[in-house]
Amino acid sequence: xxxFWSSLQAQRQSILKTVEDLAxxxxxxxxxxxxxxxxxxxxxxxxxxxxxYCLNVHNDHLSDISxxxxxxxxxxxxxxxxxxxxxxxxxxxxxxxxxxxSVPSGNYKLIGYTQWMLNAKNNLxxxxxxxxxxxYQVNQKAILAENExxxxxxxxxxxxxxxxxxxxxLNVNVDKQILNKxxxxxxxxxxxxxGMKKGNYSVSVRKKDHFVSSEPLSSDDFLIxxxxxxxxxxxxxxxxxxxxxxxxxxxxxxxxxxxxTLPIIDIDVALSVPGxxxxxxxxATDENGSFIFNLDKNYEENNFIIQILGENKNDYKxxxxxxxxxxxxxxxxxxxxxxxxxxxxxxxxSVYNQIENSYFNxxxxxxxxxxxxxxFYGSPDETFNLDEYTRFPTVKETIIEVVxxxxxxxxxxxxxxxVIRGNNPTQEDYNFPPLVIVDGIVEQDHEYILEYDAxxxxxxxxxxxxYFLGTKIFEGILIFETLKGDYVEGLNKGYLLQTTxxxxxxxxxxxxxxxxxxxxxxxxxxxxxxQLLWKPNNTTKEDNTILKFFTSDVVGDFEICIEGFTDDGKxxxxxxxxxxx
Length: 581
What we know:
The chain is mainly beta. It has six helices and 33 strands. The strands form nine sheets. Strands 9, 11, 13, 30, 32 and 33 form a six-stranded mixed sheet that branches. Strands 2-8-7-4-5 form a five-stranded mixed sheet. The protein has a five-stranded mixed sheet with strand order 21-26-27-24-25, with no helix packed on it.
């Protein structure tokens, strides 16, 4: 499978050109997406939390095909409230969305899919119902019941465990089911029988609303859906397909010639990330002038630089294609309704939300930092920190006086270019220039750098090995890092495109409230959490898993919901209830 898609992407197009391409397309399994989310009714000012599971349709195991999934919230006119990219690690992903006051009350669909799923013959995308109450807007027609009745009110919830049928994979126990405010709750998750295979699940503990709302799709019900026979749409040679994002998200673009007679095939295009010197990608365009970049590393940055390489770079412009989209099916929206009897509950919850949001700074979530990746060139052969040497006005003078094994020469066009002495002198070919990177950005104009103010440069490094990037050959790599990392601010060139791309959702460790008799940090801070716990993507262990959380100042019935799948594709779906008095 990897060889097939590597071959197809080497051609930089999503066209099935050969019989082998067509056969490879038919052999790759399809995927399906399940999303566990924390509530089917939310008020403006609350968070939607979700945990995503991408499964192989043939065996229900976590899929190893796609590394990116997409989650959208769609209103009844098929307009998207948000579109999230979700990074998948072994088929698992997570995300959240804060509901702003600009989102009107109404009924919505939460959908999930991968780009590879867009090739499926049948509609596979995940659909979940979500209703939103926005008390800050006047218009409530979308959810207001025409006739006042008590049908929209749920008076109580039985305090008993609800077990899904045929679901005996985990036991879930709480140390006590009736608690006071700000009490510790100990939740024990253990294997229901010896020898159970490991799996992954997410845990939500949330106050049960007094609304009649849609029932979320459980992992049990999800696997009842017949997807084993799902296949890709029939294709023929020269058909276009959506490529699976097997190593990371794909960025599509096209070069636009200034004159129609200019060639558009085999034009080199480079992508780099301002501020990072660890990743540069170079590819060549296909016969249509199109290119695809594969972002396979973890980037916290949203800004990217894409530029055309070569002597004729000024003859072209760059255009980016939007993320592939599809026509939404005819969604059957749940008809959530409210009545005037619910006004007090809605007002009270709105007040609680405002208080909680005002104290967000003392209850923050933590974004997990990505580990620094090793640069594509490894470690520099030499690095010169310019503060350790006499400062010279220009880079040209600094290269002459400070930096060994680097000098300049005049090329055939009469331009000054850098030269790096190779590790193996017999392989030196000065017809190949070095790759010059400044603050992570590929710089083709060597003369401009030579006259650049060296007092703005913090360090100069270089690599003496020959490098092959895409179709380009470089005799070494020369790396400049400025003191302020602001080199990108001065770039304004026609062959270069500065763009901001939508990035996958950040992986977070969500805040868990703690109370300690010896620590009074939170003693005087109001606690009106409806969501007591959200733990995405937990892994079952051989022994018991113990989760601890505290109740808040909110009283009522709370639902503990656990959803997920074992490693062999069996659903994990359990609910338990506690009461806070």
